[in-house]
Amino acid sequence: MDLQTAKGIAMAMEDETAALVPVENVGDQTQTQKAHLLGCANDQLAWPGRTTVTLIGDVDSEAMIEIIAAAWEKKDGVVVERRKTRQGAPRVDMTGAQGDFYSASIGAPGTELKITSFSPCFDLEEGQHPSDEY
C-alpha cells in the first residue's frame, strides 16, 4: 500500500463517520489535510488525521457515540471498543482489518465530535521522506 491510498482510506473513514451526525446538529466540519507521518508496525508508517464536527442543538453524546459504534460494528474484520475519555465523555475506538485505527469522542460539554484516524501501515516510495508533511 502506498501513502496516498492509506491516507485516502483514513480520510474516507473520517468522512463516513462524520456523516452519521444528523445534519441539523452540524455547525461546522473541518478535516486535517496534511500531517507528519507516524511510526507503524514493521518499520512502516501511518498517516494520522482528524476531523472535528462542531455540534449545535440538543445532542445526546451517549447516543451519538452508540450510533457510530453500531455503524463500525457492521464492518468486516474490525474490533470496536466502547470507552470513556479521561474526562468521562463517551468514546469509541475501532481497529480496522488493515491495522488502521479510529477513535470518536464527544468533547465536553458536548460541543464537538472529534474523529481521529491512523491509516493502514505503508512504505514510503522513493523520494518521499518521513519527516515531510503529507
Structure annotation, total helices = 2
CATH topology: Protein Transport Mog1p, Chain A
Indicate the radius of gyration in whole angstroms: 15 Å
Mean pLDDT score: 94
Helix content: 10-25%
Largest sheet: 6 strands, antiparallel
CATH class: Alpha Beta
What proportion of the residues form beta strands (DSSP E)?
Answer: 25-35%
Could you give the order of strands across the largest sheet? 1-4-8-7-6-5
Order of helices and strands: HEEEEHEEEE
Summarize the structure.
With 134 residues, the chain is of the alpha+beta class. It has two helices and eight strands; from the N terminus they run αββββαββββ.
What does this structure look like?
The protein is an alpha+beta fold. It has one domain: Protein Transport Mog1p, Chain A (3-Layer(aba) Sandwich). The chain is 22% helix and 33% strand. The chain has two helices and eight strands. The strands form two sheets. A six-stranded antiparallel beta sheet has the order 1-4-8-7-6-5, with helices on one face. β6 and β7 form a beta hairpin. The radius of gyration is 15 Å and the shape is globular. The protein starts with a helix and ends in a 16-residue tail after the last strand.
Question: Secondary structure elements and their pairing?
Answer:
Blueprint: H1 3-18, E1 26-31, E2 38-39, E3 45-46, E4 48-55, H2 61-73, E5 79-84, E6 90-95, E7 101-107, E8 112-118
Antiparallel strand pairs: 1-4, 2-3, 4-8, 5-6, 6-7, 7-8
